[in-house]
């Protein structure tokens, strides 16, 4: 029986402006990137994505080593950060005494606020020597049969960059996951306790099941941050244009090459190749997000396991 | 609240009056000379309070782009513009050298302090990956009496595009035909091997922590951070320590062309350190604005004479007298 008031209509239309402005913004960025990378798009075509050379002197450009570097560092960072992040979130939300939980939560928020250049400096002066002197020799000795842990040991490289990335994204995973877990209605937990479950069973079956969408969302947010992270990675990845299975090897990422070379790129083709790197980064982010959405849809299709 | 507002308005009026009759000159470009340029702008404002400078150190590439687009009144670059870039500019651009800088070869070798002797061809082969150990005969034969370990050489270079890399690769291209053919010279190149550090601090940071490391940084940076650096063999066969004096010598006696777009690496002067270069201001021969044109030319005349006394404190090498004289004649051709 509701009749729309004029104010309602006005309010609805005003609100609609905001999402539309976001659409325009994204479309504008995409258009501008394509437009500015036209010289490079015309010259190298689709081969840009599969070329392993980046030679500013001969003006021969390809993005493959950078795409490889971005994907490897982001994925390894997620492998390291997700267990720590989700584990911490469960502990904080379900097990920790309220005082401890509050104290750690403040620390986590503090970590999230540290600028990445600080992480980078810490990486150069603390993490890299530690990688070179302890972590990588250890990995080489016990896991050296795997191609990931072979090769010369400089300290800087894919592994060091991935660890820094993991440290940077862990606070995001913890914060969001903790909120998600806290939002699980206690009725569900209490009813499972009434059925005689242990706390572990309640957490594993009810809380994680109910909160999986939100936790996946946290992971996607973190992945986005990892893909785009620039300064800290640039400072410790070693900036070497190479494709190799070895995580000890110095590497390069899309964001790093932009940060490194944009200011001094003087010729048109060079500049437009760099902007095309930006376009590739944009597309990689979109593709990863779409894949993540599909993943969420596939997990959320069925009802909760318990209710089933 | 009203009082504060009134105060803000009053201050805004005062400042706008103060700046009203000053000429504002905008410039952008190279980061390497930024400290000396800011010092000059500051000191020059005491000599001539009527001119204010605004300089953005966005990098040489950006400086060239902005002066070409005429969005700034002058540009600045650590490498000369290419012929291609010159023809893209809407007018004739003059390169005016302001100070000189040296690039030093720093290393991390236990027990070896500064003064390791290196020649250009050996340096090029290290960066090409052909010499991989510190006790390679080609290094040891130049360093009798120095106990060089069998440590692997870890090559470090700049990852960001920079004038320092330009000077370094320009030098390697001069002394090694293989380097010239395979890699070439630019602010960023396709490095055959090695680790890339961002900025002088990135290279220095990696060097300090990598035993066996070799890298290149600006002279000032190596001095301030106490990095041991090599004495380089110059064209006449002498091993020269990089100092401000030996850097200035690089342009003294070298053939400097009329347009100053000269590379002075591997200088023929027997006292010159071989990896040295000018840094340039980029100005139009025909200035659009009379007041600004006059202000810029007067500033440059001051900078290359009186201004040179501020160079030593900031670890820049002053221009040799013959170059100063050439610039003064060149400035007379600028129309405004």
Would you give an account of this structure?
The complex is a heterodimer of chains A (308) and B (336). With 308 residues, chain A is mostly helical. In chain A, 73% of the residues lie in helices and 1% in strands. Chain A has eleven helices and two strands. A two-stranded antiparallel sheet of chain A has the order 1-2. In chain A, β1 (54-55) and β2 form a beta hairpin. Chain A is globular. Mean pLDDT of chain A is 88; it is low at 303-308. Chain B has 336 residues and is α/β, with parallel strands linked by helices. The interface between A and B is medium-sized, with 33 and 37 residues.
What would you say about this model in short?
Chain A has helices spanning 6-36, 38-44, 64-95, 98-113, 116-143, 158-182, 186-194, 199-228, 231-236, 254-261, 268-300, and strands spanning 54-55, 60-61.
Write the layout of secondary structure elements.
The complex is a heterodimer of chains A (308) and B (336).
Chain A: H1 6-36, H2 38-44, E1 54-55, E2 60-61, H3 64-95, H4 98-113, H5 116-143, H6 158-182, H7 186-194, H8 199-228, H9 231-236, H10 254-261, H11 268-300
Antiparallel strand pairs in A: 1-2
Chain B: H1 2-20, E1 23-29, H2 34-47, E2 51-56, H3 60-68, E3 74-77, H4 83-88, E4 93-107, E5 117-118, H5 120-127, H6 137-140, E6 154-158, H7 163-175, H8 177-182, E7 195-197, H9 199-209, E8 213-218, H10 219-224, E9 231-233, E10 239-240, H11 244-248, E11 276-284, H12 290-304, H13 321-331
